[in-house]
Amino acid sequence: MMTPERMAELKATAQRLCAPGKGFLASDESAGPWLRAGHSEAKKIPDTIENRAAYRSLCFTTPGLSENISGVILHWETLFQKDAAGNEMVDLLTQNGLLAGIKLDKAYNKKGIWGTATGPLGHPEVSTKGLDDLQERAAEAYAKGARFAKWRNVLQLDPAQGLPSELAIQDTVYVLARYASICQSEGLCPIVEPEVVPNGTHDIHYCQKMTEKVLAAQFKALSDHHVYLEGAVLKPNMVKNGLDGPRASPEEIATLTCQTLLRTVPAAMPGIFFLSGDTPLDVDNEESATINLSKMNELFAGKLPWHLSFSYGKALQKTAIVTWLGKDENKAAAQTALKNRAAANSAAVNGKYVPGTCASIGTDGNIKGAAGPY
Q1: Is the peptide bond before 266 cis (omega within 30 degrees of 0)?
Q2: Of residues 186, 193, 195, 287, which has the active-site annotation?
Q3: Which overall architecture, per CATH, does domain 4-349 show?
Q4: The dihedral of CA 177, 181, 183, 184: what is its sign?
Q5: How far apart are CA 316 and CA 73, in angstroms?
Q6: Number of C-beta neighbours around residue 142 at 10 A
């Protein structure tokens, strides 16, 4: 069993991550973040280790970022990386008042689970890799300064084929519960991320039905694995329509998402940090993610037992990346763009974001981004 000291440490980390108005910067892309931003010009930035370090150090040293961001999720490469001046990336974060987190999953093989149907991602249902040496990697990450961790499992929706299958759901929730228990045993507060991807033609109601089923199974599995809920946080998808399905309004997304969470997530869990999810090419990913979160906190103010916040990657970084475009002379302007979008999401955590008040690249240069493992 966990010692009282370990439980107190995990709870303190979770509470710090759930500080009022704050969320996460997901900076854990395996390649340059600009390759997943879905922008035609940004995609041309060379994906070199030097460029990745330059861009990420730009983000981590953004003045005042800790006013809006509590923790930054790092890729394994970044956890052990230095910037051009020889500073440890983890030190850049801690000096800027931010907690370092680490992505510990090893993505998935698109060959998928044998015998399962091919879903809208173009491959069968999948299982995420990385449990075999997780204990050692979690301990190594903690020693390097990480205090929380992330693991993403992916589920596809297809009403015609009954996806996600019971098999895929059970595999997902088991793997995430096992990961969470291992992380806690090594002192890392786990982010539990069962992502129901938005790819497909389904409507919002099918997404709600399946997200509710997945989350109910997830918390059963976390209980079975003795995961300490007060020392963990959840990173779910918002309940939305499929990318090619009938479009739901921000009010519908907010209402059905919060209904689903209230039915499934125990009050003991301190925080829920949404992933933004992909959007159609004619939708501003950054702006829509902020609006949806703000609408939830506006409509359900005082009715939610958890901190309802954001864990965004490209929905925080897209305008910053397009402002930077790999050029050192654009660093300050890119930091301003990141800070502005982070502040907009802080306003959303308080249910107070006014649409259109944060400058965004919008849909300009939108191209289909990479889907699947990263």
Answers
A1: no
A2: 193
A3: Alpha-Beta Barrel (3.20)
A4: positive
A5: 13
A6: 17
Nearest to 47 by CA among 29, 61, 59, 20: 29
CA distance 117 to 162: 9
Instruction: Spell 27-44 as b/e; 16+ CB within 10 A means b.
Output: bbbeebbbbbbbbebbbe
**Which tokens go with 225?**
């694995």
Task: Give the dihedral of Cα atoms 48, 50, 52, 55; nearest 10 deg.
Answer: -140
Stronger pLDDT, 318 or 41, i.e. the higher one: 318
Gap between the Cα atoms of 215 and 223, Å rounded: 12
Decide: helix, strand or coil at residue 96: coil
Domain boundaries defined on the chain: 4-349
Output the pLDDT for position 374.
Answer: 57
Of residues 327, 371, 313, the one with CA closest to residue 27:
313
> Does 235 participate in catalysis according to the annotation?
yes
Nearest to 371 by CA among 38, 147, 21, 11: 38
8 Cβ neighbours under 8 A, 6+ residues apart: none
> Per residue in 245-282, pLDDT tens?
999 999 999 999 999 999 999 999 999 999 998 899 89
Residue 195: per-residue pLDDT: 98
pTM: 0.96
Q: Looking at residues 214-238, what average pLDDT do you find?
A: 98
User: What confidence tens digit (pLDDT) does each residue in 149-207 have?
Assistant: 999 999 999 999 999 999 999 999 999 999 999 999 999 999 999 999 999 999 999 99
230 close to 14: Cβ distance less than 8 angstroms: yes
Q: Is 251 a catalytic residue?
A: no
SS (H, E, C) 297-335: HHHCCCCCCCEEEEEECHHHHHHHHHHHCCCHHHHHHHH
Active-site residue, selected from the candidate residues 106, 235, 295, 318: 235
